[in-house]
Design a protein that fits this description.
Blueprint lengths: L6 E2 L12 E4 L20 H19 L28 E3 L2 E3 L2 E7 L4 E6 L9 E9 L4 E11 L8 E7 L4 E6 L10 E5 L5 E5 L19 E6 L6 E5 L9
Antiparallel strand pairs: 1-2, 2-14, 3-4, 5-6, 6-7, 7-8, 9-10, 10-11, 11-12, 13-14
Length: 246
């Protein structure tokens, strides 16, 4: 059983990034959220140094029994390397849809299926996600092969952005940025693999569009992550809420 709790991150810490993480928790069949709208005291030099010392002490305790990695250890010299790229043709026509605007991607390791979410709400084709397979090895990235398209149902004026496969429920979680003109608020949605609507999570009023408060147009729920145990989802805002500053 999933238990999702929505929390608001203290506004002063990451305002300069204009990016907020929202933690979401919900029990299947019922939903409850808890707002934590407190503001921390000013982040003075003394507080910053004290926090840094605390983190340093924690790091020392945690590493006291760890062995120093050898010169050939991957931990000593982590590296990233490009092994290839793959592209889809512009405005590719596939099973009655136009492929494009792929804003979200996730992978189900059990089935080897990729889920690709299009952020084209309705302009080219109905709201949709694609399934695909990708040949990948340690040294080579093969071509991507689309295996299907699924049209999402039950959401008015969607603007899809992020998608995650939720293995415990065998379903998909995805976000919509909403549509201020049409009065559609940002949403977190749960859909079945066939595209049928399973659930819309109720978000607090701070996500409703307003002149002085609420999210900024087209800068709402841009990112989504799910904890490894499937119990918690994190929503990332593209920009700060209006009431949280410029």
């Amino acid at each position: 059983m999933e238990n999702f709790t929505l929390c608001r991150e203290p506004a002063g810490l990451f305002r300069h990034r204009q990016n907020y993480l929202k933690q979401f928790s919900a029990e299947l069949g019922s939903y409850d959220y808890e707002m934590m709208d407190h503001r921390p005291p000013p982040l003075t030099r003394r507080r910053l140094i004290g926090s840094a010392c605390g983190l340093a002490a924690f790091a020392l305790v945690g590493c006291a029994t760890a062995q120093t990695p050898g010169p050939n250890s991957l931990l000593a010299k982590p590296k990233l390397r490009l092994i290839g790229e793959t592209c889809l043709p512009h405005k590719l026509q596939y099973q009655g849809s136009t492929v494009g605007g792929l804003s979200g991607i996730d992978y189900d390791p059990a089935s080897g299926v990729l889920y690709l979410l299009s952020d084209d709400g309705t302009s080219q084709s109905p709201p949709r996600f694609y399934t695909a397979r990708l040949a990948l090895s340690a040294d080579k990235l093969g071509d991507i092969e689309l295996t299907g398209v699924t049209f999402l149902q039950g959401i008015a004026s969607p603007d899809p952005e992020a998608i995650r496969w939720h293995a415990p429920s065998q379903s998909l979680l995805w976000t919509s940025e909403g549509n201020a003109v049409r009065g559609a608020a940002p949403t977190l949605v749960q859909s079945k693999p066939d595209g049928s609507l399973q659930r819309v999570f109720a978000l607090p009023a701070m996500f409703d569009f307003g002149l002085l408060e609420g999210p900024r147009i087209n800068k709402t729920l841009e990112g989504l992550a799910v904890a490894p145990d499937g119990q918690t989802a994190w929503l990332a805002m593209e920009a700060a809420l209006r009431q949280d500053g410029p």
